[in-house]
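G., before I forget:
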Amino acid sequence: MRIKFKLNGKEVTKEVEVHKRAIDFLRDDLKITSIKEGCGEGECGACTIIVNGKTVHSCLMLAVELDGKEIITLEGVEDSIKMAFVKAGAIQCGFCTPGFIISTKYLLDNNPTPSEEEIRDALEGNLCRCTGYIKIIEAVKIAAKGCENND
Amino acid sequence: MIKNYYSPSTLDELLKIKNNTNGVVFSGGTDLFVKMRYGIIKPQTVIDTKKIKSAIKLENRKLIIPLNTTYTDLLEFLKKNKTNLFLEKIIKLIGSPMIRNRGTPIGNIANASPAGDFILATYLLNGNIIIKPTNRIIPIENFILGPSKIDLAQNEIIYAIEIDVKNNYKFFFEKVGKRNAMIISIASIAVLLKENNGKIEDISICFGSVSPTILRDKNIESKIIGEEFSIELFKYLANEFEKLSKPINDVRASKSERKKLVYNLTIKAFYNLKNEVVSI
Ligand SMILES: Cc1cc2nc3c(=O)[nH]c(=O)nc-3n(C[C@H](O)[C@H](O)[C@H](O)COP(=O)(O)OP(=O)(O)OC[C@H]3O[C@@H](n4cnc5c(N)ncnc54)[C@H](O)[C@@H]3O)c2cc1C
Ligand code: FES
Ligand code: FES
């Protein structure tokens, strides 16, 4: 099936088999390898992308469902959020990081000044085996401050 | 492997495709894709409902939640219309933001898990299931026949869920053991209570995961109308529901542990409700 969608602001038209998951299409066909497959069943959040303004799991979705949508992946996220993760030292192996950054963007797009509890709630669908989360929460706070300064 | 994908944009078209192909209908896919991954189902044809436009409605003290309404959509609607806000406590514990952005109450009901959190909410609020094309309207307790079993014919789909509008009630919800993709919670309870001068004016009590379907007993509820809201009454209820529960043994909890939980959760509900301020 031929699908047409916007990926990080750019139009993409591509042929895709109807059984293919969104994650396989984006990683294998479009080489967006920032999307990670941790669990493949909605538990870890490493495959999170933004579809029409909402975070979803690309492992629980067909590629054909992307048709007509606006997609944002790590590549489409503002640098200030990515830098906040670097500044806070919130990255160890980095496998979970793209998913956390996408969830952070979704949070800050909807709530630019989140409380600590709101940050924890927003990240509850992302798992990290390395950092123990404290530095990740710190990163989101830095990112939120960055957004405030930009406004 | 999926061979055919349909995404009709009207209900008529959807019903025609369903009738002709007997494909598997899906909305958020958060149950379906996990089941496909585990090989529990292997559909050749899937029918995506998401292109069908629909909107939540408030009508005659009923809330009508049509297909394609996600948990996120529903929560936004409840907040905007300041109604049934207690449901936020249930919705916020379903999965994660990503699951709530895709998953739907209708998918939860069609999945018929004894741990389904929105099935619990639908029992609690005297829900009806609205079915097309037959226009059957069935109370949730008659629609859910058992784990993964529902009263739906091959050519039918769920069009909407209709639940009561209830405001100015006290509410308690607790879920023991976090639910994830394949594993169900150990036990859950929801109690919706209206008091009048310390007496029970209206009450609805539901348990999840402690029976093949949600446990609710309307006879017990009607018997205690007018009774004093007291610990003695809740001890009586705790005993009754412990007897009524028919839990299973599994790796996460034994049968007797689950029965004990039913008792303890009921007592806990009393103390929490006692201290709760009426929410809108
Ligand atoms: C990580 C994770 C965590 C989860 N946590 C929870 C939780 O805490 N609590 C909980 O209750 N559930 C949980 N779930 C399960 C799931 O997210 C919910 O049951 C959700 O509501 C399913 O909705 P959906 O739209 O994604 O359903 P889908 O996967 O699209 O469909 C589910 C079933 O419903 C059928 N169906 C869909 N639409 C219709 C229709 N209109 N008519 C007839 N049949 C239809 C499908 O054929 C399928 O059998 C979790 C799942 C995952 C992966
Ligand atoms: S890979 Fe999708 S949630 Fe883990
Ligand atoms: S940094 Fe390794 S999983 Fe998070």
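Chain B touches chain A through 27 residues (CB under 8 Å). The pocket of flavin-adenine dinucleotide (ligand 1) is lined by residues A 41-43; B 24-32, 34, 49, 67, 94-95, 99, 102-104, 106-108, 110-111, 116-118, 157-158, 179-181 (CB under 6 Å).

More on Monday.
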